[in-house]
Specification:
The protein is mainly beta. It has 1 helix and 13 strands. The chain is globular, with a radius of gyration of 16 Å.
Length: about 150
């Protein structure tokens, strides 16, 4: 809720099947969140500049802050229950173990640029990474899937 300016925004989760309204408290620098996704059973992942914050909305606390990008994060894939993927403005994709916060893969997408301000898209499936950029869509195939690298 950004209608209460100049105070920080208020984030509310509404779960229709339970008729539950949850106002998020202790939300880290809420005014700087540029992107937010649901992740797992009770978490949100939030982009704050070049960091990804994993926030447990049931416990109302930050689980982890993932750092390592050198530029602003533009897209997040949070569909996998274990692995998170981030795409930064410098065309670097990072794959993270969402439980430990460890970066398990870093991939540079050659010739990709992100200057036009589109809503960019990132999708990871097994050993493939699909990312949209100003020039179009890029498909990167890794030698093995991220899950195999963690073992």
């Amino acid at each position: 809720d950004r209608s209460l300016a100049p105070s920080p925004p208020v984030f509310r989760l509404v779960q229709l099947e339970r008729n539950e309204h949850l106002e998020l408290e202790n939300f880290p620098t809420a005014q700087n969140v540029t992107l937010i996704r649901l992740w797992g059973a009770n978490c949100l992942v939030c982009v704050i500049e070049s960091s990804l914050v994993i926030y447990d909305y049931r416990k109302q606390e930050v689980r982890l802050t993932l750092t390592g990008h050198n530029d602003e994060i533009l897209a997040v894939d949070a569909r996998d229950p274990e692995i998170l993927a981030t795409l930064a403005k410098d065309a670097v994709v990072r794959l993270w173990n969402g439980r430990t916060g460890q970066c398990i893969e870093e991939v540079q997408i050659p010739e990709a640029s992100f200057y036009l301000g589109y809503p960019y898209c990132l999708s990871v499936s097994g050993h493939r990474i699909l990312a949209s950029a100003d020039e179009g869509v890029f498909l990167v195939e890794l030698d093995t899937s991220p899950e195999a690298r963690e073992v």
